[in-house]
């Protein structure tokens, strides 16, 4: 414009130059606006990329921290040593899982990871059921404990009532002149340690002697220490008791000392009872029930009852070997050589035969006295063709029982006929 004015250009030329300048100015403004817009776009994209980078870096740091934590926990689990071995608390073997697990735990087990998860779920299910059973058993145990406590309390009150009854019956006893039978000290403890068959025999003999005032004395002899030891071991389990009974040997010296203590002044101790080269099968309980028949005579007959634990038989003999053969004549047809129990035959593998040379024999009247009701061995009953003869001849014998009164009376009769 200045150059046009200095040169004195015409108005048309000046206007053309002016319009051209305006166009250039408009183009410069458009270029500047485009540059500003591009700068703003680049700034926004840079900020967005930076935010994405920061987010990715934060996620990476979190993952690295989690990885370190998991690796630490894995090392802690791998180095953990429990007091229970993997065999005790580990998962069931995979083969057993595949064979026994329900179908709901076998879905997608082709994959090793899924199979392990299913095994864990199955183990959790099984252990949950086992826990429920344990809780049920604990509840039952508590209920039984409460029941036992209630029964124990009832027995305590019952004992007090028995004492009252005894005190009230004392005038009647004194009026009728019934003598008071007092057991020697220690007999109650011995009676508690007796096996059930010997206890039944002891109670029956003692009751018959008191009720019928028979000339007899009933007592318990043997090794009290061994009986207490055997009773303590039997509390740990029935199988342990049988095993201890197998290896137990009766203290013969203690037994002889007990017998010497029961002899009257001036009476000599009979010769020791001959025993077979005892096997574990015929070992007897250390306590013996003794019935001294004809106690008012000069030389009474001393009956001894033993319990063979493994065979579950009661054997009888006399302290004096000279009196032992008389026991075979107490009841007709009962010489003690026939084992009266099929269970004894089975326990010995069917090879048991009682030796005639042994002094103690399992008389049937001894089993009846001890409450051991059993049928004779099958080979003694005959064949199936003899059923009519069996019903006519043997069954009445099986029904016939030897009671304590009869045994004591016949023992006293044997002593009187000696």
Automatic annotation (TrEMBL):
What keywords sit in the KW lines? Nucleus
Compartments where found: Nucleus
Biased composition annotated in UniProt, kind: Low complexity: 229-242
Which residues are the signal sequence here? none
One family name in Pfam for this protein: FmiP_Thoc5
Region Disordered, as annotated, extends over 229-284
InterPro entries to which the protein is assigned, alphabetical: THO_Thoc5
Biased segments, Acidic residues type: 243-264
Q: Which family does it belong to?
A: Belongs to the THOC5 family.
Q: Which PANTHER family match?
A: FMS INTERACTING PROTEIN (PTHR13375), THO COMPLEX SUBUNIT 5 HOMOLOG (PTHR13375:SF3)
Q: What is the name attached to this protein's record?
A: THO complex subunit 5
Q: Upper taxonomic classification of the species?
A: Eukaryota, Viridiplantae, Chlorophyta, core chlorophytes, Trebouxiophyceae
């Amino acid at each position: 414009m200045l150059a046009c004015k200095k040169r004195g250009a015409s108005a048309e030329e000046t206007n053309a130059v002016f319009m051209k300048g305006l166009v250039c100015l408009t183009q410069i403004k458009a270029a500047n606006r485009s540059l500003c817009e591009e700068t703003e776009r680049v700034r926004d994209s840079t900020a967005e990329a930076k935010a994405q980078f920061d987010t990715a870096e934060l996620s990476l740091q979190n993952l690295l921290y989690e990885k370190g934590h998991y690796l630490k926990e894995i090392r802690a689990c791998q180095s953990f040593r429990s007091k229970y071995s993997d065999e005790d608390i580990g998962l069931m073997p995979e083969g057993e899982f595949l064979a026994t697990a329900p179908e709901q735990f076998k879905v997608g087990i082709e994959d090793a990871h899924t199979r392990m998860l299913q095994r864990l779920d199955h183990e959790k299910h099984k252990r949950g059921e086992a826990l429920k059973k344990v809780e049920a058993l604990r509840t039952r145990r508590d209920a039984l404990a409460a029941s036992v406590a209630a029964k124990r309390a009832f027995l305590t009150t019952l004992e007090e009532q028995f004492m009252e009854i005894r005190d009230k019956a004392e005038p009647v006893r004194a009026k009728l002149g019934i003598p008071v039978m007092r057991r020697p000290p220690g007999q109650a403890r011995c009676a508690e340690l007796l096996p059930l068959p010997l206890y039944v025999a002891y109670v029956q003999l003692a009751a018959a002697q008191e009720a019928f005032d028979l000339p007899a004395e009933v007592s318990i002899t043997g090794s009290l220490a061994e009986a207490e030891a055997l009773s303590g071991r039997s509390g740990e389990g029935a199988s342990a008791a049988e095993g201890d009974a197998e290896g137990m040997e009766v203290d013969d010296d203690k037994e002889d000392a007990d017998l010497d203590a029961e002899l009257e002044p001036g009476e000599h101790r009979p010769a020791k009872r001959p025993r077979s080269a005892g096997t574990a099968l015929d070992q007897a309980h250390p306590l013996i029930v003794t019935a001294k028949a004809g106690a008012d005579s000069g030389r009474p007959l001393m009956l001894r009852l033993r319990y063979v634990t493994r065979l579950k038989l009661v054997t009888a003999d006399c302290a004096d070997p000279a009196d032992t053969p008389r026991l075979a004549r107490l009841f007709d047809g009962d010489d003690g050589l026939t084992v009266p129990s099929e269970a004894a035959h089975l326990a010995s593998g069917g090879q048991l035969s009682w030796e005639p040379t042994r002094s103690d024999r399992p008389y049937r009247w001894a089993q009846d006295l001890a409450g051991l009701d059993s049928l004779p061995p099958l080979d003694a009953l005959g064949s199936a063709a003899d059923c009519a003869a069996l019903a006519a001849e043997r069954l009445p014998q099986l029904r016939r029982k030897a009671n304590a009164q009869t045994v004591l009376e016949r023992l006293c009769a044997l002593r009187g006929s000696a």
